[in-house]
Amino acid sequence: MSSIKNRGFWNSISETYQGAHGATLRQHPMAWGVWRIPESEVRALERVENRDVLELGCGAAQWTIALAGSHARVVGIDLSDQQLTHARTQSRRAMLVQGDAERLPFGAAVFDVVFCDHGATVFASPHATVAEVSRVLRPTGLFAFCMSTPIRDVCVDATAGTVTQQLAVDYFGLARFDDGESVEYQLPYGEWIRLFRRHGFIVEDLIELRPPADATTTYSDFVPAAWARKWPAEHIWKLRKAG
User: Fold this and answer.
1) What share of the chain has pLDDT > 90, as a percent?
2) Residue 160: what pLDDT?
3) Of 64, 46, 40, nearest to 54 (Cα)?
4) What is the CATH number of domain 2-148+187-221+235-241?
5) Helices 189-198 and 126-136, interaxial angle, to 10°?
6) Global pTM?
7) For the chain, what is the mean pLDDT?
8) Can you give the residue ranges of every domain in the chain?
């Protein structure tokens, strides 16, 4: 199963990952994507105060901890116990759960907001995850998640390990990617929209993140900033569960 492989992968790289990225994530916790574009500019989550919020794939829980400081009733869930160990060193009061986004350990209709920033919506089956998010969200609840775009992913040269300016991958074949160490997922745009509609979601926005001209990132292998200034490398799906 992909969840077993991905748990092992994240447990094995957690220390290195937090060493490379943790300080920046803590410095800019309420921000999106590899260039940490502030939520105050993006406004994908809207109001969180006194609302029940779930972060999928919280990692070391930088978002979760920051949102709790903004008076949200927030829970962070992650597949990796090592990532959650890092989270607990930052806050003993954070509500953290180890679990799988494909089988969320929560009752129905218990959250007002579910969100993810390059977390479980990348590493869990979208067909299972979208269904589970719909189940745990209350009517009119918000689901917002940030991930790589199909545009970026069809330009990945797997042999060279780089993102190019040429189409290199079968767009209609976007689905499940297993590199032997971890499993990631992506879908064509139309398939995403049909999946959302099947589970009662209305697409309110597709926020295509464009880094500022002077942007820097600790994720230097994701895509050059100049590339993402010309084509969207990351986006945020903003969805509303039907009332």
Assistant:
1) 93
2) 82
3) 64
4) 3.40.50.150
5) 40
6) 0.96
7) 96
8) 2-148+187-221+235-241
